[in-house]
Design goal:
By secondary structure, the protein is an all-alpha fold. It has one domain (2-112). It is built from five helices and no strands. The N and C termini lie far apart (66 Å). 3% of the residues are buried.
């Protein structure tokens, strides 16, 4: 019976270890894509690069926090759990700050668009970003066409 338990424990540890590596790799790939995309956008003088960068970083932080939570499964000692807990708390605080920054950047962007004359506002929005539909509902502001 002990060998079955040992084999299952080894299998779970192996699965968790490779799942953590996969999550970290995906996070790294998303971060690299985000940075390259924002650099290209800034070279093309498109708007909203800062918001896109912050949203990408936020997503990567959430992925990495998932990996840290998986690490708690294979932690053997209290000291490991305390270190992982501290890392998770720090990353959660960073995530909250980044979400606050996203909210403020969206508010600033919407205020800047609202201050433009109506003919220029449509010309200033980025094309193909897919973000024009949901943002005004998130911040509570509705236009006459949405009601």
């Amino acid at each position: 019976m002990q060998t079955v338990y040992d084999n299952l424990e080894a299998a779970v540890e192996w699965i968790v270890k490779y799942a953590i590596l996969l999550i970290d790799f995906i996070g790294m790939a998303v971060l690299l894509y985000t940075v390259v995309h924002v650099l290209i956008s800034s070279l093309l003088k498109k708007r909203r690069q800062r918001l896109e960068l912050v949203e990408g970083i936020s997503f990567v932080l959430e992925l990495i926090m998932g990996g840290e939570l998986l690490r708690t499964i294979v932690a053997r000692e209290w000291s490991e759990l305390l270190i992982l807990g501290a890392i998770i708390l720090i990353r959660a605080a960073l995530s909250l700050l980044i979400h606050w920054e996203i909210r403020e950047e969206r508010r600033h962007s919407e205020a800047a668009q609202a201050s433009l004359p109506s003919g220029e506002a449509g010309a200033q929005t980025p094309t193909g970003s897919g973000e024009s539909g949901g943002e005004s509902g998130e911040s509570g502001g509705e236009t006459a066409s949405e009601t």
